[in-house]
UniProtKB/TrEMBL annotation:
The keyword Nucleotidyltransferase does not apply. The lineage of its organism: Bacteria, Bacillati, Actinomycetota, Actinomycetes, Micrococcales. PROSITE patterns: CYTOCHROME_P450. Keywords: Heme, Iron, Metal-binding, Monooxygenase, Oxidoreductase. It comes from Pseudarthrobacter enclensis. Its cofactor is heme. One of its GO terms (molecular function) is monooxygenase activity. Heme binds at residue 404. InterPro entries: Cyt_P450, Cyt_P450_CS, Cyt_P450_E_grp-I, Cyt_P450_sf. Belongs to the cytochrome P450 family. This is Cytochrome P450. PANTHER family: THROMBOXANE-A SYNTHASE.
Length: 465
């Protein structure tokens, strides 16, 4: 191994408070990261109690952490403590050889050619939920988006609505809430200590795994072919021809549930909230959907003709990336951005701060989907959208060996949801003032965001026979 040249430590926040930046981190990590980036640059040091930490918000430093120096960083003890009890050996948290083997097995089932088969599910569920909302009604906007994504992930996983599995869905939600509390705990309490929260967690985990195992057993007994991920994973084979063990299958199904449901609900919430507060963009997205779709649902063949719906969704994820911060831990002494990083340092990649860097995005606070619309160059040839040229400066799905395998699925789902909902409904936020984000595991609104529903009748498209 090449010896590491130890450079100067990164600049940053220095305080005599023995807790360091821990109070600020617990109060508002987004504000802490933005102030670090503004005052100290794209690699900034701070402390969480005695624990050294670094905030990263520049594309080159991000590339080092996730790609060129990826062997120097792993998920870290904090994430393993929070996520391993529920996800065990699921792809999101596992490292090393098992991660490589599982990723190789799972990735083919999330490629674009397979995702196109799910467009009908996305469109059908979005319309079904839209049709249930009365004109003039008041709704919890996050709950609406959570309901749609809940039923979509149920059909993707095992061809049934999770509304039919209310007890299972409630137990999984409590499991994920336990993870959130464990991730930000000041004093971690091991799961083996029988506190009320831990007893609830252990009971929920046993019940969730038992119920999902029963669904797997029912599927095996029923036979037949299904267009869902359970069927795909039951049929998947490793290089030696063996199938996944049931324990590993359970780990991956729970991991997929958490990643696909919560993250998608949050992303679609921010898209809907931004469209609600930018009526000109909302009307343009609806007009595009009217022109292309009229009164029918989109198919995979329509996706290329709905660029504004996709651009609006991507721009919403720029301003409010669900994974607003990625966490790693240095496993050895290394360097980052030319600065010395000691073993054990926690590294926070602040996607939120980077996506709002004016050096990468002019007028970064402005919701402008045109950033993600492709154009033409000076020779009249197709050119990438301005925001797509930022490379590691746009990071809604991570990068490198742990890049989200569901990125194509998430983008397709978001595009379809945006188009279907825009042509059926418009939302207007009831409360004045901006919606405040808060960083939990994902980026969510602070408090309940209520909206008024207005129904609209799609115009008849000239493209519809």
């Amino acid at each position: 191994m090449t010896a590491v040249t130890l450079e100067a430590p990164p600049p940053g926040l220095h305080t005599r408070n023995p807790l360091g930046a821990l109070p600020a981190m617990r109060r508002d990590p987004l504000q802490l990261f933005e102030s670090l980036a503004r005052e100290h640059g794209s690699v900034a040091a701070f402390r969480l109690g005695p624990q050294p930490a670094v905030m990263v918000s520049g594309p080159e430093a991000v590339r080092e952490v996730l790609v060129s120096r990826a062997d120097d960083f792993d998920k870290g003890d904090i994430q393993r403590r929070a996520f391993t009890p529920a996800l065990r050996n699921g792809l999101l948290i596992v490292e090393g050889d098992l991660h490589r083997v599982q990723r190789k097995l799972l990735v083919p089932h999330f490629q674009a050619r397979r995702i196109s088969n799910y467009v009908d599910i996305f469109a059908r569920e979005a319309q079904r939920h839209a049709d249930r909302l009365d004109d003039g009604s008041e709704v919890d906007l996050l709950a609406v988006m959570g309901g749609i994504t809940r039923d979509v992930i149920g059909h993707l996983l095992w061809s049934r609505s999770l509304a039919e599995e209310a007890e299972l869905a409630a137990a999984v939600t409590r499991v994920f809430e336990w993870e959130m509390r464990a991730l930000f705990a000041l004093v971690p309490v091991p799961l083996g200590i029988p506190t009320p929260a831990n007893r609830q967690m252990n009971g929920d985990l046993r019940w969730v795994r038992g119920r999902i195992q029963a669904i797997i057993d029912e599927r095996r007994a029923a036979g037949g072919e299904y267009n869902d991920l359970l069927d795909a994973l039951l049929q998947a084979r490793y290089d030696d021809g063996s199938a996944m063990s049931d324990d590993q299958l359970l780990d991956e199904l729970i991991t997929l549930w958490g990643a696909a449901h919560e993250t998608s609900a949050d992303a679609q919430f921010w898209t809907a909230a931004l469209l609600a507060t930018h009526p000109q963009v909302r009307d343009a997205v609806a007009a595009e959907a009217d022109r292309v779709l009229g009164d029918r649902l989109p198919t995979a063949d329509d996706l290329g003709r709905l660029p504004l719906a996709m651009a609006a969704f991507k721009e919403a994820m720029r301003l409010y990336p669900p994974a607003a911060s990625l966490m790693r831990e240095a496993v050895r002494d290394t360097t980052l951005g030319g600065y010395r990083i000691r073993k054990g340092t926690i590294v926070f990649i602040s996607t939120y701060s980077m996506h709002r860097d004016p050096a990468l995005y002019p007028a970064p606070e402005l919701f402008d989907p045109e950033r993600f619309l492709a154009g033409v160059d000076e020779n009249g040839r197709p050119a990438a959208a301005p925001a797509e040229r930022n490379g590691f400066g746009y990071l809604p799905f991570g990068a490198g060996r742990h890049v989200c395998i569901g990125s194509t699925l998430a983008l397709t789902e978001g595009q379809v949801f945006t188009a279907v909902l825009a042509r059926r409904l418009s939302f207007d936020l009831i409360d004045d003032g901006p919606v405040e984000p808060q960083l939990l595991i994902n980026l969510r609104p602070r408090g309940t965001v209520r909206a008024t529903v207005s129904r609209r009748v799609p115009a008849r498209s000239e493209n519809v026979a």
